Amino acid sequence: MADPIVQAATALVWLTRLPVGRWLPETPPPLAAAAWAFPLVGVVVGAGAGLVLALAAGLGLPPLACALLALAAGMALTGALHEDGLADFADGCGARDRARALEIMRDSRIGSYGTIALILSLGLRAAALAALAPGQGVLALIGAAALSRAGMAAALAFLPPARPDGLGRGAGRPTGAAVAVGLLIAALALVPAGGVLPALFACGLAQYALARLARRRLGGQTGDVLGAVQQVGEIAALLALAAT
User: Fold this and answer.
1) Distance between CA atoms of 34 and 31, rounded to whole angstroms?
2) Which of 16, 101, 182, 233 has the fewest CB atoms lying closer than 10 Å?
3) Contact status, residue 170 vs residue 217, Cβ threshold 8 Å
């Protein structure tokens, strides 16, 4: 079994732009083995975004500006990886059949559905954060980022790959134990933000609905589907935390 630190570094390499690749051995563990650490990546990304939120609030910027700057910081840390997946998946959903949908999702250009999905993602998350006090917003960013990435691990475990090649096939499938550990880490990260049950319910429901849609339209998961799963989960969790 690979060292947990190596597995966590593997998750960081895959899901962020942080320069931690030098910590990995020549043959790093498969992504599935690192799936339990996806929520830890969320904690790192959420903390970075939360720091920007706190600094912006300390400068007296309007709540919406603080929220947008925090989201921009999170996207800088991840290279907008998950936002890109959401846009590609949304564009693919506009296709009439599975083969065409998968073809569209491989196109680097963004279409109208993808553009609308990105606007909604940024707008809803920013509105939720702007409704929270800065300190609560920091905790919400960390909790929602962790929880939404636990859902990515679950989708990777329970959805079959939609393509014979690509990330979905090459990543492998996490064990149930890895998914459970990830969910536990995410729940612990969410506790300081409060509203644990509403956030868990909202995030889980949104991610389950998207996973069902991906299974029906595509036959399973791809890297873009995993990114979309993360995004809808984070949106739902932040909205639930803002509402409670």
Assistant:
1) 5
2) 16
3) no
